[in-house]
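pls design
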């Protein structure tokens, strides 16, 4: 019994309370599934199925795989379920309650064990009952583990300060290093911790006695984070990628930096006790701290200013410094939208310290009833319960009835997964654009964990299939990007596998009437169509473009290229061996000047089936819809494709040294021309090009020549047309050597029978002139044979006419 009396049971009680609030309404608050969390879950799928050990998390632009390794054993046991995804982070956040208790108990021990325990209890209860904190933990994203890791670092470090044990300094370094793999904002934590320790040492020089232990902590942290820093040194982009590739920027890069900085600072202050404004938090109508804790925060601020206790100075400093990253960054949200999750535990620590100060003050007033200070704890609990009640009664109904929240999955994503789970014995087709929505891909991984190419076709002609199609297939993804919907492009779900098929128009033959599938809130979300598979293996054009990373572009297929119409491009990729690093694929249409008129630069299948996970030798179709501008001018265009190293931000080369492969050339034909030449003839150049006539005219700007060309065959090169104006002595007084239409419509894109009108103007003085015309190849200056009336002309040039200019 003495052991039970001496043991501090408060952490167990606090953990129980925290687990209750964090797991209460686990699947309904917030509704849906977070897109970032689903991507992290797909990394676990890659680890389990393809033995891919992630380090650099592309969609977050950071190296923080900590949560992935925690999720892996959970998913192995419970499967790829929303409860498992959220449960891992909810549990991590729940651990923050006992962790903050221990952190207060260690840092504030010099003010007495009772004061330290009271501060820890209040901070822990405030954290456990905070709707914002519990809601954020259920997103399923990695940041939920940052507070507990940070708090454990502080706990171990201050226990080491007090007791001087080397083991505490060592494990403090381990936790600090580990924080760098948890969450991108935690990069600021070691800096904030170092700054807070420096302030504490300035106010208590006795802490310098532990300088060897601090050195051990720093050295251990550096060793633990060394792999990450080697990545940053080898590929600097990975350190700032989050800011450079998203809508975010550093505040000082903005033209109105001072105004934005001021707005964010004001928002942070208002967030604490007046109103929380955050695009990711539906609890924005209330502040981060309830009134009791906010009063405690104010008291703590005054107490720190008036006190010389080093731990208090430490607490205020680290809380302040952890708010700095949000102050200096701007991610495209309103200036008042704040992201301070990593700073939250230290704010609650300060609030707990202030409330404990009030509690102690009340207890020391002899004219007040005994244990009057306990009312502070009661007030904290009541305020926390009220905030939970307010969230449940007021906020949750509004959130559940609202569409378009960033963390809410589209209704179709949840509905399709439920329907499909009940029809696993059927062959099911869903649009590829739907599978690329990471929440749906994650939910389907429970029953269809194997992903593979759909080539050769895993369906036989006449086989029965069920087509599940959303009612709004072209809606934006959960990331706010266009859906990438391409008609007749499917993912086949069959016998535990998800097979990616190329676009196959006319592959579906309905054999019954469609049915409407309702979402959980009874809103029509999708259609179910029984059908028969009639698609044949797609015929692609062969190609060979082996990139240096082992990814080979082996074929392609495109639809017709027309101005104002989207062109669908399907590229067939084949890894020759296991691809070592994630890549992006870029597909572009270039004009003659190599300017991009349409293009896509994206993570293949939006990360739902990364290139690293592809099976060597499989041929994977990737399809893109490129919007061709309506004002695309006549002329030649090139379709190119390439592979992009997303870590080093460089294009991967071909053996030829080029950084892209030319897939196909297109052309936009000249509009029909109804004009007729003033002089007709039938001159032949190289058996490929015919001059049908010409028109000469004298104008103010000089001699105007119009040449009427017609292709007899497809010319084998881009030929240059020369028009020479010669005087009576055959001396050239003016000339124009240029490709037809001055290069805008080269001969290599001419089609048999196509007519081309080419105009030239020569500013020559009055006189009598002869006009000669011909074609030659610029590379060799070799002229095309010129034939008129069956006779080859001297010098392979045609005398058009003799003209006298007044």
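designed seq:
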């Amino acid at each position: 019994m003495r052991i039970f009396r001496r043991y501090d049971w408060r952490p167990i009680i606090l953990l129980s309370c925290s687990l209750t609030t964090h797991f209460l309404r686990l699947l309904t608050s917030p509704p849906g599934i977070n897109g970032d969390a689903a991507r992290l879950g797909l990394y676990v799928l890659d680890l389990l199925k393809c033995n891919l050990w992630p380090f650099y998390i592309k969609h977050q632009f950071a190296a923080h795989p900590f949560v992935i390794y925690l999720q892996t054993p959970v998913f192995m046991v419970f499967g790829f379920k929303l409860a498992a995804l959220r449960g891992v982070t909810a549990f991590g956040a729940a651990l923050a309650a006992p962790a903050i208790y221990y952190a207060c108990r260690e840092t504030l021990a010099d003010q007495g064990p009772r004061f330290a325990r009271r501060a820890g209890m209040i901070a822990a209860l405030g954290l456990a009952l905070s709707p914002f904190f519990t809601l954020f933990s259920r997103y399923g994203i990695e940041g939920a583990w940052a507070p507990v890791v940070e708090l454990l670092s502080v706990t171990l470090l201050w226990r080491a300060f007090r007791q001087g044990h080397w083991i505490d300094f060592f494990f403090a370094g381990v936790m600090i290093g580990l924080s760098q793999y948890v969450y991108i904002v935690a990069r600021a934590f070691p800096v904030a911790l170092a700054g807070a320790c420096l302030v504490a040492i300035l106010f208590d020089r006795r802490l310098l006695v532990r300088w060897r232990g601090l050195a051990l902590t720093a050295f251990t942290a550096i060793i633990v984070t060394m792999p990450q820093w080697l990545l940053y040194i080898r590929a600097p982009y990975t350190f700032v990628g989050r800011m450079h590739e998203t809508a975010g920027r550093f505040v000082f890069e903005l033209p109105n930096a001072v105004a934005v900085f001021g707005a964010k600072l004001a928002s942070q202050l208002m967030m604490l006790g007046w109103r929380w404004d955050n695009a990711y938090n539906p609890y924005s109508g209330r502040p981060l701290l309830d009134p009791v804790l906010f009063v405690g925060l104010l008291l703590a601020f005054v107490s720190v200013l008036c006190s010389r206790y080093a731990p208090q100075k430490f607490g205020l400093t680290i809380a302040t410094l952890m708010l700095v990253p949000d102050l200096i960054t701007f991610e495209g949200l309103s200036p008042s939208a704040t992201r301070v999750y990593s700073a939250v535990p230290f704010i609650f620590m300060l609030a707990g310290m202030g409330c404990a100060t009030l509690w102690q003050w009340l207890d020391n007033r002899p004219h007040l009833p005994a244990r009057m200070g306990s009312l502070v704890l009661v007030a904290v609990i009541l305020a926390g319960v009220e905030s939970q009640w307010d969230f449940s009664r007021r906020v949750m109904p509004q959130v559940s009835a609202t569409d378009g929240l960033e963390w809410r999955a589209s209704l179709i994503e949840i509905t399709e997964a439920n329907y499909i789970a009940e029809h696993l014995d059927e062959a099911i087709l869903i649009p590829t654009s739907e599978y690329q929505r990471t929440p749906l891909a994650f939910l389907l991984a429970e029953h269809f964990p194997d992903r593979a190419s759909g080539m050769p076709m895993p369906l036989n002609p006449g086989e029965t299939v069920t087509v599940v199609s959303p009612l709004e297939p072209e809606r934006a993804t959960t990331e706010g990007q266009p859906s990438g919907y391409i008609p007749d492009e499917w993912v086949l779900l069959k016998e535990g596998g998800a097979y990616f098929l190329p676009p196959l128009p006319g592959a579906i033959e309905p054999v019954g009437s469609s049915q409407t599938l309702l979402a959980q809130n009874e809103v029509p979300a999708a259609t179910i169509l029984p059908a028969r598979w009639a698609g044949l293996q797609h015929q692609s054009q062969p190609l060979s473009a082996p990139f240096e990373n082992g990814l080979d572009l082996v074929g392609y297929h495109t639809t017709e290229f027309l101005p104002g119409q989207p062109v669908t491009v399907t590229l067939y990729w084949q890894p020759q061996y296991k691809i070592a690093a994630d890549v992006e694929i870029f597909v572009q249409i270039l004009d003659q000047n190599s300017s991009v008129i349409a293009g896509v630069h994206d993570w293949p299948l939006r990360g739902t089936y990364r290139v690293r996970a592809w099976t060597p030798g499989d041929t994977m179709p990737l399809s893109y819809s490129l919007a061709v501008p309506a004002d695309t001018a006549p002329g030649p265009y090139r379709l190119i494709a390439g592979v992009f190293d997303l870590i080093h931000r460089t294009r991967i080369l071909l053996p030829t040294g080029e950084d892209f492969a030319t897939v196909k050339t297109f052309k936009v034909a000249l509009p029909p021309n109804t004009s007729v030449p003033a002089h007709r003839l039938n001159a032949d150049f190289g058996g490929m090009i015919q001059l049908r006539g010409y028109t000469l005219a004298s104008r103010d700007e000089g001699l105007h020549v119009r040449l009427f060309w017609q292709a007899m065959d497809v010319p084998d090169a881009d030929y240059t047309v020369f028009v020479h104006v010669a005087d009576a002595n055959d001396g050239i007084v003016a000339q124009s050597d240029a490709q037809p239409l001055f290069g805008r419509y080269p001969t290599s894109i001419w089609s048999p029978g196509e007519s081309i009108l080419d105009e030239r103007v020569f500013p020559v003085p009055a006189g009598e002139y002869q006009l000669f015309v011909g074609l030659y190849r610029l590379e060799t200056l070799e002229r095309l044979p010129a034939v008129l009336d069956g006779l080859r002309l001297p010098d392979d040039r045609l005398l058009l006419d003799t003209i006298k200019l007044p």
